Fold this sequence. Notes:
single chain; about 180 residues
Amino acid sequence: xxxxxxxxxxxxxxxxxxxxxxxxxxxxxxxxxxxxxxxxxxxxxxxxxxxxxxxxxxxxxxxxxxxxxxxxxxxxxxxxxxxxxxxxxxxxxxxxxxxxxxxxxxxxxxxxxxxxxxxxxxxxxxxxxxxxxxxxxxxxxxxxxxxxxxxxxxxxxxxxxxxxxxxxxxxxxxxxx
Length: 177
């Protein structure tokens, strides 16, 4: 984790910080006791203190960089999440459009099937109507051939007095009058 990495970096640099702190303490003690170190010792002491400060500054920058990277990674993860969410919504909308298009196609298909069925029924009705008409013509022709005393014309008259729906139910075609 970020905290562990920062802590590890601090532990790693701890000896360097302690050395710099000790050199700083020595410098302060020398000033308090009014002891002046030689120029070479003074230069060496200041270089060690400066090196320690530089390492501390670099450690601080490393830790800040770690925080920035963590924030950037968090932001990148958030952006990736939002991107995936947006893509999911787009796919969902596309799927919805496809389903709507498919349902429209199915409605059209069902309508076409219904139309085909209706067309077949109409053709069948027309065909049956021609057959019934021929049957009626044949029946009328046979009746005209029969003798006037037959009872069948009376039965036919009785049948014709029945309502149309009963004749249709019996499967007998209507006679044109």
